Every structure is written in C-alpha cells, then in structure tokens.
Amino acid sequence: MGWCLLTHLTLLPQQFCSYDTVNTHPGPSHLKSPPFSAPSRPTSTTTVSMAASRLLSRNLTKKTLLSFNSYLFPKLASSALFSTRCRRQFTPALPQRPAAKKVPFTATAHGVTWKDPYHWMSDINDPDFISYLNQENSYAEAFMQDTLNMRRILYSEMVSRIPSKISTPPERWGPWLYYQCIPEGKEYPVLCRKLAVERKGWAATVFNSFIGRFGRDQVLLDWNEIAEKHGYVHVGTCRVSPDHSFLAYTLDTTGNEQFQLQIKDLRTNSIIPQPRVQGVVSLAWAQDGCTLFYTICDQNQRPYRVLCTKIGSHSGDDAEIHTENDSRFCIDITSTKDGKFVTVYIINATNPQAGLQRFCKRVSGVQYFLEHQHNAFYVLTNAPTSKDKNISDNGYYLARCGDEDVQSHNLQNVIMPGEDTCLEDMDIFNGHLVLFLNRNGSPLICSIDVPTEFDCEKEMDIDDLNPWYFPLPSNMCTVTPGSNHDFMNTVYRVVLSSPVMPDLLVDYDMSRKIFSIVQQEDVRNISTGDVESCSHDHEVNKLLNIPIEKKTDVDNNESRGWKDFSGKYICEEKEVLSHDGVKIPLTILFSRSAYQKGQSPGLLQGYGAYGEVLDKSWCPDRLSLLDRGWMFAFADVRGGAGPAPSWHRSGCGLNKLNSIHDFIACGEYLINEGFIHKNQLTALGISAGCLLVGAAINMHPQLFRAAILKVPFLDVLNTLLDPNLPLTTLDYEEFGNPQTKSCFDYILKYSPYNNIPRGICCPSMLVSASLNDSRVGVWEAAKWVAKIRDTACSSCSSSVILQTNTSGGHFQEGGRFAHCWETAYDYAFLMKIMGATEKQDMRKELQ
Length: 847
What we know:
By secondary structure, this protein is an alpha+beta fold.
C-alpha cells in the first residue's frame, strides 16, 4: 500500500471520518487518494454495538494495515546456521539474552488456575519493566548490528521510489478547492485550499477580504509543524464547518489516543483559545456553522457521551445531549450528506435545540445506517423485514421512510439483495444513489438516478431501477471511495488499486454515464519497459464486473488509460481447503522473472477479525521483495471480510479457531503445492492479526521460518478477563466474554500466551510494540517474548527480539521517510534469518 494522505483527515461536513479513520497514521511513501475520504458506511442512528463500532478496537483498517514486504531472495541458508537438533539454531556470538524477573502470581477463573509470573509487566510505570524494555532494545540492536549497511541499502531503494513532492487533485466543495500535498523533503501532509473561481464585482470585496492575506492557497493544517513541536502527530477526525469558516479536528501528540478537540478559525488562521476537551472521538457540525457536536470517551476509551458546544463558549458550558451508560455499547455521530440532520439518535441540524428523536429500538445484531435526501431517509439495515424474513446472512437491504415521521416501523422496502448479491454500502447525492455490492464474491458499484418511483408493495431488485454499473479494471481491483463530500455533485470519485496496478483516481459521471481517469500514483525508478499501458483502444478488454452488458458503459468515456505492472508481476487467486472443507481465498503475488517455484521464500499475511478487509492494494515497497524472487501471499481467513457477513461470524467468538486453522491451511498449501520452499515461509501479523500468527506458531511451530509481530494482541485471555482495560468490554462481541465459562474454555484453547509449548523450537521473531499503546498494552509483547525465552528452545529463542518504541502509540510514529526506515529494519531482519548477507545482494545486483 502506498502512502495515503487521506488517512489523516477527511474534511467533510456530512459523511465524515468516523473512528475508522482515527485508526490511521503516517504510512508508506505515496499519495493514494483524494484529500477527503468517505466512511465505510453511513453512521448508525442509534447507539451502536461492538459489531458496528468494531473500528474502536484492536483492528487496523485498509489505511492502517501496513503493507509489509520482505526483500531478498537469497540462496538457501547455509546448513552451518542450523544444528541437527534444532533447525533454527543460530551460531553467531550474541550478548546474553535479557532475562525478565519472575514474580509469583496465580490467576483463577471458572475453577481453572494458572500461573503468570510476568503479570507484573502490566504495570508499565514499574521501573523494572522500563529497565527490561531497555535491555530488550539493546539486545535487538546487537542482534541487528550486522544488518546496518543492508538497512541503509533498503532505505535508499525505498526512498528512491518516492516523488520528492506529492499533491492530490483538488476537489471542489462550494466555492473552494481542497487538496493535500507533501512538500519536498517533508514527512507529513499539508491540507490546503484555494478559491475555485475568482469572484468579480462588489461581492468579491466581501468574499475575498480575508483571503488576500493568505494568497491564493491557504494552509489549513500542517502535520509537519505539529510533529516538529511535539515529536509525534496523529490527527484523528477533521471537519470543516458548512460555511467553510472553521476547521474542527482532534489531535493526539503522545500516542495514547486521548485526542484533544481543537477549532481553527479559517478567517483569521488562528486556533480559538477556548478550553480544549480531551478524549474526543467524532465530530458533526450543525448547519449554522458555529454549533459543533462531539463525543467523548470514558476511562476505557469507550465513546459514551455526546455534547454540544458553541464557537467561543467555554467547555464548561457545553450541553450534554446524550449519555450511553451500557458499557457494551458506544456512540458515534455524523451528519447526513445534505447536512440537514445529525445522527446519533436523530438531531435536526437546522434546529439543534429541538432535541433527540429515536429512530428504532435497540435489537441485538440489528443495525441501521441513515442518509437523507428530498424529505426522505434512506436506510441501510439488516433488520428483519415485515415478512419476518431474516436476511442477515446476505448482508443489508435498502429501505426508506419520510422524514416527517421517522420510525423504523415505517420503513418501506426498496431494494433487497438477490441470492448472489450482497448490498454492502451506500452513498447519496442530490440526484443519485450509489450502491456498493458484492456479487459472487466480486465487488461492484452502481448508481441509480433519484428521485425515482419505487414500488413499495413489492421487493425490488437493483436491476429493476436501471442502474449504471461503474466499469472497473481487472486484476482483482479494490475500490475505495473518495471523499465525495459535495451533495450536489454528479461525479463520484473512487480510488482503484490492485497488487499490480498503482492507485488510480477515477471520476464516474453519473449523469453522463462516462468515466475519466484523474490521476495515477507515480512510481519512480521502474523501467518503462516493465509497465503495461492500458490505452483507450483496448481498455474494453481490461474491464470487468459489468453485469449488464452495455457497450455504452465502456465506449462513452474520457479516459486516457492507465498503467499496470501485470506484464512483470503475476497476481493470482487460489482456493485453499481449510480443516472443515471451507474454501479460503488466498491471493499470491510474484515476479514473472525472479520467482522460482519451490525455491523462493514467501511472506504470508492474515488478519481475520472485526469483519475487516485484508489490504491487498498496490504497495511500491513490495517491489523490493518481488524483484528478488519472494512471493507475497494474502490469506482472507474467516473472521475478516468475505462474500457475506457470515464469513465474519464464522471466524469470531466461539468460531475463532476457524481463523487460525484457515491461516495454517494457507501456509501448508503454499509449501505442499510447491509455491514456497519448505524452510522459507514467513508470516506477518499486525495487532489482532498477531493472534493468528501466534496461535499458528504454537500449533505448528515448524511451519514458519520467521515471523513479524507488530503491536501484537497475544495475551488474549488475561486481557479479556480484565474489564478495566481500554476496549475490553467492546471486544466481547468479537472474541467472547471469558466471564462466561463456555467462552473462557474456548479462548483458553487458542490464546497464544497461554499455549506456548514447553521446549518448542519456535521460529525467529521480530516483535514490535509501543509504550503508549492504549489499544494493545505493551506488556502483551513483552510477556510473550519473556515466556518464549523461558519456555522455548534456548537456541531458537535467541533469535526472538523485542523492539519497543518508547514514545509512540499503536500506530507508532513517523512520516513517509521514517516509515521507510522502519520497513527496512523489518526486511533486514528476515534477510538475516534467511541467511542473506549484504555481499550476496551486491553480487546478485552485478549479475
């Protein structure tokens, strides 16, 4: 995945970034998207359950899943590195491994007792714990000392692919054009705007009076200035007022995600000096442009209260709108696209003092997501229909009701999913409705002209409404909505990407039924002979997912074509049979020339939680891995996103072991089918994805040669048994509540920390954590490494290292260049474990 500016802000007054975009951080090196992003789905109008608010938990979204790559395809490691007793034994001289102290501690639940001598590490203020982390950092530094030159080589290669400066195409919103850029030599983005049209006449004097002082381009927010001042920057939510006069945003400068509300007056370019509220999550403006709704967190980081503030007022004067006292639920707010309503229950944005109106009663597992257009609410829901038909296995359906009598029982069914179609998302404009679909496992987008006559007496199919299906490129294209914040617009912007196609910004004109390519990600230092250019002449042959064959869908376009690397790299989808016969999608990516079947190393990545999509979009850093023969494999295990909501449910709670078995099956498939050398398979887990990797290592320790565990969720049982930890109660719906014996017994079966076999010959591991991480405690990584050292084979565990960032949070820190250095460290670790050296790489380059 390239470096995505939009992950830091989404400047929408309506459909705005909910907590999913709060999960983001500076990542790799390229600009992937327009300056604003839409939420994955309109925000629920009622207090949402954990399933609806899962983005608050330990998951990482598309923008946050670090596209991890390895680097070198070396010759097979010398047998001198291994003994006949332990195939992973390292012989280089190393300093003595840190030995964590043991403090007797016994835990008991449901009649089961177990010892946890590293429980003391959960006190991160304990001087002994800080000392231990420092010892581990020193050991990791010594272990990686001989990779320093290689890290420099890798870093130089990655940076060489990054354009010196990057800018997004501007998007118009009202009289302004908003865009982002990364100035030359800078780490972070800058949000800017300029007037779309120069006004003339007497109106110009009034309208442009405050613009002149800023010149034609006004800087709204500069991440670089904040980072230089505080050393860390994480902007969560960011919204411009409907009149474009104020910018409200939330800021974290420590990594603990206690975001502070700040409001900037864009007329004077100054921060309003009112008391700044801590623990703010989501924001929504009322139509008057000076009333702002926001949510705050409790001590466990659960958004539970909605407040309302007026520009210029003191925070003590902020009015409480609603409080959710049930710890199983959290609150999110947003505005409808037309800006007329704020949804938490329902608030009239034109008259915010009118109070709340409830849309529906709370029902377990039922969700409602509202948008508004032409005196009607459009509702995406999985609620049982009037015919008592439960369609939860097929996802959502679309219904609507008048805004004069807003009650869920007044819903009229509009569009029902077909047997082979899932309705996953929607967006709405003044004249168009946009639907995101999944048909037979393939993504589709279509637009429908509205208002239109709907037959409320029968369940309608999408094709009954004369939809226009957006032509999409092939090569397993992923689709990410742009900001699309202008309700009056007729053009829908998306970012298209695939493992072999750099990110493509495409505008679909829903009125004219044409599409045009706006921008494609620039990738430097790649031979033009490696690029396949899809010109206008043969574009039609490169399109897919057009269920209704209409020649005008592809002929009527203003596209200049796009470029991909399918001529150099192969991306294929496989199906792997899991333990219970279910077919698991596995995507493999490799070089046509460098890859050697049966001899190449490979990296298997999985996530499998919260129903989230595993990111398989373009990543320029991945070229370093591919060009040296590595294979990259993505396992879409159960628990993540799939062809239907049942894919998530079949891999969570009392079905979580399915995710782990799926991941193991994919690893075994890569080896048994001869894709990867049996001693050259590595694994990557991030956050909740580390549960997969850790459990798989315990069950099949010989499967992986090495593993990367980033901010790992490994001490699952002990964490979920402590409801006082941040996010724990919200995670009960995903993993189960171990206070219940059935859940306790099940979690105990797979919890990685609790199931390390004694004497295990474990793979080499790079475990990374952050001291200020509030989502996954730093002690989880530290306890895992300490127990591995104490329990596993001493030779193997000497190549397990723990690296702790003592200043960052769950998303660590650093901009595009810092990320390259971090990634180079990860690559160099795998290279070292594989027996590769800098000299081998130099010889390979000379051949």
